[in-house]
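call fold(seq) -> tokens
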Amino acid sequence: MNTELEPIKIKQLLDRSTRQMSGQVLLSLSRARQKALERQSAHAPAFTLASNGAGHPHVNDWMHWVLPHSVQQMIIAALLASVVVSGVSYWHHAEEQRIGELDVAILTDELPIEVFVDH
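ret:
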């Protein structure tokens, strides 16, 4: 027998059952709930770019691996990003220098004729 219960009906059944319990049972249940909540480790909310993973089952696994979780990991990520930015900036500057030197050589006719001839 497969009977689907609606959430409202489940709530009504639970409320009715709760009213039938003695005060001592309700107090014991409340204490047990509080103890369970105290044992539960508290997690601070974290910023994430991932959804609940409904679209793709491995999205949360990937985002969990990619996003930093501690201050040390964030510092390492920031240092890595600064090294990459510095490297790209240095490379860009070196290319500009090389192109500038080539332009000066072309304008002053200091290049040998072989540079202008296709081989």
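The mean pLDDT is 76.
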